[in-house]
Amino acid sequence: MFRGIFVTGTDTNVGKTVVSAALMLRYRDEAPLRYWKPIQTGIERDDDSAEVARLAQCGEDEIFNCGVRLRRAVSPHLAARLSGTRITVRALVEQLREANHTTRAAIPRWIVEGAGGVLVPINERETMADVILGLHIPVVVVARSTVGTINHTLLTIEALRRRMMRVAGVIMMGTPDDENRAAIEKYGAAEVIAQMPDFDPLTPDTLATWAATEFDRNGVLFGCLR
Questions:
Q1: Would the CA dihedral through 67, 71, 74, 76 be positive or negative?
Q2: How far apart, in whole angstroms, are the C-alpha atoms of residue 134 and residue 100?
Q3: Which residues form the domain of 86?
Q4: CA angle in degrees (0–180, nearest 5) for 35-38-39
Q5: DSSP symbol at 143
Q6: Contact indicator for 191, 153 with CB cutoff of 8 Å
Q7: Is the distance from CB of 9 to CB of 114 less than 8 angstroms?
Q8: Could you tell me the CATH number of the domain that includes residue 78?
Q9: Residue 169 phi/psi, 5° resolution?
Q10: Do the domain assignments include residue 210?
Q11: Which of 59, 106, 144, 214 is deepest in the core (most CB within 10 A)?
Q12: Does some domain include residue 224?
């Protein structure tokens, strides 16, 4: 039904938004990409859609800026409850299905960014994993490169595979660590597609240069966007 990549993470603030922007930069000339953040909490201080638009220098037609937008930087289920509303997988999937049907150009390939990690709850019984299942697209796991990442990344991969989801690969963020990379690839049976360094400053130009030369050199993720 949908075509694209879901960008999840081992934790919150791990780098999902930057990876989403890098995907837009890397493959927008190869496929009709659109970015979507289905659930955003703490909207009064963070706007990931705006940040992707800035970093990837997106046009209006490349950002689907609809979805659940809630105040308070807490878990989606809590932010929704405090706001007197309720998030459901069905409503999110229907929203994207409608966007697919109303697109005038070619069928979009979606870069969908999750909120937090795979098992973050969105209501009293559904989690972010159920959102991924509802969209039925491959998953990229964004992980830190530092100590602790092996356990966190392997747990995330296991949680996805137990639910019969396709793990397209892992992106490691921060100072490259070849030992951690090798361990994730060996024990997780998942390719580390890239190790993204910390950019100082993080600008559209620095990210675009890196994406063009270092990101997904083997075209693994492009196979998910065809």
A1: negative
A2: 15
A3: 4-215
A4: 130
A5: E
A6: no
A7: yes
A8: 3.40.50.300
A9: 160, -175
A10: yes
A11: 144
A12: no
Tokens for 78? 């809590």
Please name the residue that has the structure tokens 């972010």.
128
In order of 44, 109, 177, the CA distances from 147 in angstroms are: 32, 34, 9
Instruction: Supply the DSSP string of 153-193, one letter for each residue.
Output: HHHHHHHHHHTT--EEEEEEESS--HHHHHHHHHHH---EE
pTM over 0.70: yes
What local confidence, expressed as pLDDT, does residue 152 receive? 98
Which residue numbers are catalytic? 37
* Beta carbons within 10 angstroms of residue 94's beta carbon: 12
* pLDDT confidence of residue 106: 74
User: What pLDDT is stored for residue 183 in this prediction?
Assistant: 98
**pLDDT value, residue 203:** 98
SS3 per residue for 82-113 = HCCCCCCHHHHHHHHHHHHHHCCCCCCEEEEE
Look up residue 86 and give its amino acid: R
For the stretch 57-83, pLDDT in tens is 999 999 999 999 999 999 999 999 999
Mean pLDDT of the chain: 96
- As for how many domains the chain has, the answer is 1
What is the model's pLDDT at position 226?
86
Check: CB of residue 144 under 8 Å from CB of residue 159.
no
* pLDDT, tens only, 3-12: 999 999 999 9
Q: What percent of the chain has pLDDT over 70?
A: 99
